[in-house]
Amino acid sequence: MAERTTAIRALFTDVCLENSRLQGITQLSATELKGILESFTKSLSAKCDEISALKSENAELRAKMASKESTATSDKPEPRPVSYAEIATAKAGRKPKPKNAFTKKALDSCRETKSSTKFMVDVPEGEILTKVKSDLWNKVKGKLKNPRAKTLVRDKTLIIIPDDTVTLKVLKQVSNFKEVQPRQPRIIIYYVDVNISETEIADGLLAKNPELRLTQTDIDAMSVKYKLGLRNGCTTHYVIETPASVLPKFFVGMTRCSVKLHKTTTQLFSYFDAKNTDTHHLKCRQAQSACRHCKEAHDSRECSNKQMAICANCRQPHKASSLACKAKASLVKSLRRRTDFSTK
């Protein structure tokens, strides 16, 4: 740094001498120039001392950090090898993450499944299933050389699901086939006055809601399935089955009543079995009750073992009416797959 100061001073002196030689006018005297150079030299020396002090502090901090890192590394214990038994025990003790059985993605996927008409044939007593099936296919092949259909057997019932429209038309012409149409979508209308009858509901939808743009054909295609809600209340909820072509119109707006797609299934109060769907809602075929708490054959209101919940459907530790029941979720998905949501 002193060498640079000397060089600057010599350069400044040369500039002044060159200016005098060229007969220039210098505004500062030699004494003033000397004072300026001395103040500049003092400031430069002070900055050099400050930089040296900072460098020494930086070196001390680096040395302290290096000593701390070496101490921490030496104090850290060596990792102990983990056995397979410890890993298995840790996985077994880990709590499973709660998962809702009714996931929206799964239900939407079931809704996109194409549902078609199926035909059912009951096997008479004393006859063999294979013979009945062979006779039926011979009858169908007499009208169509290459029928395409899927055949299922459930107990003593033969189920035939056509794969194309040609086979569907031929199967409709067979006399002893029982045709079963796809399940129609259902909507639920909330908070309807209990004094309004089922006929008045259909007439009210057509006459008092012109914004829905319903026709008499749409009204005739609807059917009231059952009612939900409090038994002695002043309002009730109606579940109505309607074609998919009418379904989007209900989401425009309803007068004093909210409308929603009915996605779940019903369970009778006395028999909490998910298999007992709304087809048996008005006429239960079960002779014994099934408790919603402990699955035993008694009324849920008279259960004395409500603390030990056991599902009557999946035998898991929860009530039969729980939304987490996998058996109920499977039934809802099956109903969604068998529902025709396609608009024709």
UniProtKB/TrEMBL annotation:
Coiled-coil stretches noted in the UniProt entry, renumbered to this chain: 44-71
Show the taxonomic lineage: Eukaryota, Metazoa, Ecdysozoa, Arthropoda, Hexapoda
What species was this sequence derived from?
Aphis craccivora (Cowpea aphid)
- Report the superkingdom from the record: Eukaryota
Q: What is this protein called?
A: CCHC-type domain-containing protein
Keywords per UniProt: Coiled coil
